[in-house]
Structure formats: C-alpha cells, structure tokens
Amino acid sequence: MIVIMRSGAKAEEVEHVVELVRSFGLQDHVIHGTDRTVVAAIGDKRSVDLSAIETAPGVDRLVPILAPYKVASREVKPEPSIVPIGKGATVGDRKIAMIAGPCSVESRNQLFEIAAAVKEAGAVGLRGGAFKPRTNPYQFQGLGQEGLELLAEAGKEHGLAVVTEVMSIDQVELVSRYADVLQIGTRNMHNFNLLLACGQSQRTVLLKRGWSATLNEFLLAAEYVISAGNKNVILCERGIRTHETYVRNTLPLAIIPAVKRESHLPILIDPSQGTGHAYMVPSMCRASIAAGADGLLIEVHHDPEHALTDGAQSITPEAFHKTVLEMRQIASAIDRDV
Ligand code: PEP
Ligand code: MN
C-alpha cells in the first residue's frame, strides 16, 4: 500500500509513518515527489492496524498498490526516475544517453581506440564485457579482471561511465570495484540471488530483459533489485526469442510506451543484440529515440570483421557517429537531446 502524505507534511511526520510501518513488520520506501512525499509499505498487511497509519499526523490517505511490482511501479512513484550512471551522466532525463563500445574487451588498443571514438561522437558511457556469458564453452569468455582494469582506465581517461556485465554473485564485489554500472544479462534476469546481491550494491544496475520474459516478469526482476535497497535501476530491452530467423532476436519497441505506463524506471534499447545485424542497428536506433527510449546500448567495433564476439552486429565508429547525428534530429523533434 502507499501512504500518501499531505503536501507540506513535516519530516518528523514522515519519520513517524516510517516507524509505524516498520512496527507492523512492513518494509518502507520513502519517495520524495515534486509535490508530496509518499511512503510505500510493502509486505503482508493482514496484521496491520491501518487506522493507526491513516490517522497519523500528516497522512492524507492510504492507497492499495494494484500492480504486482510495487517500488518499480508508477503507482508508487508517478515521476520518472533519473538514474545516475557515473562520470556525471544520467539516464532518464531530457538528455538521451548513448552507451557504446565493443561487445567484449579484447585488448588495450582495441578498447582505447573505440572508447576515444564513441566519446568523440557523443557517448556518455562505455560498454564492454570482461566476463562474457557464451553459449559455447569453447569460445572467448572475456579477459576477466584484466578487462575490468582496462575498462576502468579507459572510462577514466575519456570521462565515460563504465558499464559491464556481472555474471554471478561472487563477481559483484570485484566488478563493482571497476565499473560504474553493473549489467545483469538476459540469461540472468531470473537469477534472483544475483538480483538481490546487486540490490545490495552501491552501483547502478542495468537490467536486461530475459529473452523469454514477459514485461511483468521483467518488472518483478527490477523489483527484486530495488526492494533489496538499490533504487538505481535502468531497464534494457535487448530483443526476445520468436519464430523469426531474419533477426537474431526480435526487438519489440512497443515495450517503451508499456514500460513508461507501468513504471518510473528509465529504459534503454540494445539494438545490437536486438537484431544481430549491423545494417539494422542505425534504423532501430532512430526508431528507439522516436518511441521514447531514454538511451541506447550499442555495440561499436573499429574492426567488426575480426571482433572476438558479436562482430556481425557491431557498427563501426563512423556508422555510430553518423547515427548519433541522425538521432539528434529525431530527439529535437520530441524535445529531447542526445
Ligand atoms: C551483451 O551486451 O553483449 C550481452 C551479452 O547481452 P545480453 O545479455 O542481452 O545477451
Ligand atoms: Mn554482445
């Protein structure tokens, strides 16, 4: 349920409601809106004395939360969230965030060349896998810690927020030492223990949708992270499994308005995993902006033909630069910036 405070309610009144909520064994999440403060009270309400909360000083009214996800829902927080990603950048604000880089970190030269190019073209974040979830156990699995060190160095040198995947609970602490944003991959969206571990981290979480997860399951996965204590969650659509074969995954851009209706969390689109083909990436980037995405996660490689992973879906720095210019025009038409 949501406890809606009166506008102008005092800090002590909010604190008193929080204490009451806790005394009934419920979890509290205080959300300071532009107009008023609300306290989301999550948990089993059967033994709660609702009238004690309802009549507490400063309380306007109690409202049940109908969605199965609570703290991820727009019912609890009507204003869109602006999530920091490090190096002064945010996702969810008027400025649309470009996070670009190779699928995986392969070498210092590779990473630094791509990082310089994407920064120059307007990216605010550098993506790159150091731990790679590979379907085939005999293929390149990433450089591990060495990859993390290179990412941190390149991010620092170019002022780019570092986004990289964490595959297991025992990697959370290590990856958090080097990265600004922890990426939870599509294969791990249902790894509830990993979601909880990332929920206890101070780092922003970029949560990818499972390739067969529904929107409801996706938002419930985000709920795991937020309810564990980390409100800095960014959603990312990366395509789903369908019967189609002309694409690696089918990219459902209709999820953008659906997420905006259901949740306050920002949403990124990953057109690289989302299509599997470099030639489709620029048009999906443009379409994502037009549909209201808060940013893009794009695979860029200076030599896609020789990339160790996902070369076929990686665009060149030149193509990225050109696409950013096109996205800028579309963004201005909907009163946003890139
Ligand atoms: C990636 O971003 O390179 C990646 C492995 O993503 P996903 O988890 O969406 O497949
Ligand atoms: Mn990839």
Question: What does this 3D model show about the protein?
Answer:
Helix 6 packs across helix 7. The chain has 11 helices and 14 strands. It has helices at 11-23, 50-54, 108-121, 145-158, 172-178, 192-199, 215-227, 255-262, 271-275, 281-291, 317-333, and strands at 2-5, 27-32, 37-42, 59-63, 83-86, 89-91, 97-101, 125-127, 161-165, 181-184, 204-208, 233-237, 267-269, 295-299. It is 34% helix and 19% strand. The radius of gyration is 21 Å and the shape is elongated. The strands form 3 sheets. It has an 8-stranded parallel barrel with strand order 7-8-9-10-11-12-13-14, surrounded by 7 helices. A 4-stranded antiparallel sheet has the order 2-3-1-4. Bound molecules: phosphoenolpyruvate and manganese (II) ion. Phosphoenolpyruvate (PEP) binds next to loops.
Hetero groups in this structure are: phosphoenolpyruvate, manganese (II) ion
CATH class of the largest domain: Alpha Beta
The CATH superfamily of the largest domain appears as Aldolase class I
CATH architecture of the largest domain: Alpha-Beta Barrel
Most strands sheet: 8 strands, parallel, barrel
Give the helix/strand class: alpha/beta
Please count the helical segments: 11
Helix content: 25-40%
Low-confidence stretches: none
Run of helices and strands: EHEEHEEEEHEHEHEHEHEHEHHEH
Under CATH, the topology of the largest domain can be stated as: TIM Barrel
Shape summary: elongated
Alpha carbon gap, first and last residue: 37 Å
Overview features:
338 residues, alpha/beta, Alpha-Beta Plaits, eight-stranded parallel beta barrel, 11 helices, binds phosphoenolpyruvate, binds manganese (II) ion
